[in-house]
Design goal:
elongated, 3 domains, TIM Barrel, M1 Pyruvate Kinase, Domain 3, 7-stranded mixed β-barrel
Amino acid sequence: MTAPKFCKSKIVATIGPASWEKEVIKGMVVAGMDLARVNASFADFDELKRVKDLVRSISPRVSLILDTMGNKIRVVGFTEPISVRKNESLVLIPESQQSSQNSQIQITYESLHDDLSRGAKILIDDGNLELTVTDIIDKSIICNVENNYIIKPNKTVNIPNQQLHFPILTEKDIQDIKNAVELKYDFIALSFVENTQVILDAREIIGESGINIISKIENQAGVDNFEEILEASDAIMIARGDLGVEIPYEHIPIIQKQLIYRCRAAGKPVIVATQMLESMRENPRPTRAEINDVANSIIDGADALMLSAETSTGLYPVESVNMINRTALATEDVLTPQMLYGNTQANRDTDEICRTVFNLTNSIDLKAVIILSQSGRTVSSLSRHRPTVPIFEISNDIQRIRIDNLLRGVKCYYSKKNSGDRDESIQNAVEIVFSYGELDFTDKIAIISGSSIKNKCNNTILEIATVKDLI
């Protein structure tokens, strides 16, 4: 029996009003959703718990990501859209100050007036509305409107090329991280990471919970300090929405390719996010350009692709996940993987073994690689090469399985057995994969497992075997 072919690229889908119903989430799981994201900007503890309970009741395999709000500025204080015209005057005031006229809009950054000067640019709603600061009177920022636009409530505010004085972690972020620990989420995505301090502060709150940190690269400082951010992080998200506002659009494609390659070289998963299928918020089919964007992100080497508004507020959440899956399958079928050099957090022996396995997948007829894993370092070391054959990870740690669920080409299986006997553990692992229809009796496979030498726990043994000889 042959198992259905699964998409190697992982799909992250944001849960929101469009996908709150159990049947919708179940449909997204069936369509290929691997990780569920909750945007803490719009969620409290009860919402985080409700989504967690709902997702876990459908599939314990789906990983959970809490995405912090970060130091994001928003327009607030109104419920109906506000129309502005080019060359009109618009005044931005702190949220604590009451708005007395239509030409005033409150913002959530209390001291913005201290950080700006005349001539500064302010961008609202991912840059769709541009303002130019003409004067600052007390706490009021007087702006000239550069284009016609309709401002909707809670839209984001960006101030490119300006040094803003934010706290490292906001009080809301701290509480949201604590909530994620209590609810046993798998990942925390930290917004607007510019250096390692915010990562270190978040790790203190996370403690020994085992939650992994995804650092979101969203501005020039994040790009400039990427090497140190990458080293301190467990994974990276290239958040192209705010990044495309903070940095000229035309630079984003090259930055995306560069950051993906550096993540792969380090053996750390990378997510490409924002506007993957933006038109599917309202339409049942995406544009051809969007499909090209999805395919090119896979060709660039991304581990995962993320849907935001498409699945949180859009009209076609299940169809959006299905479209990513279909595009990924078609793209992966024709890719020629290339080996990466350099060392990961695994030891050098393990990195060399993984390079050997990669070469073997091209020289002999291997159908799969099975890894008996505890730390996940071997799995990430091999996954970065993007081999054409699937990687099956067997672990008795369900948290480890949901963490490694982010890695491209990796399919994780849980085993309660924790035998100290290496041969028995290998037999059990192969039987699990075989029982799910992933392998045939005559398939040749590679197996990476821990050493049986006493006091030696590194995964340093590689074997080539046929399935029928092991079960």
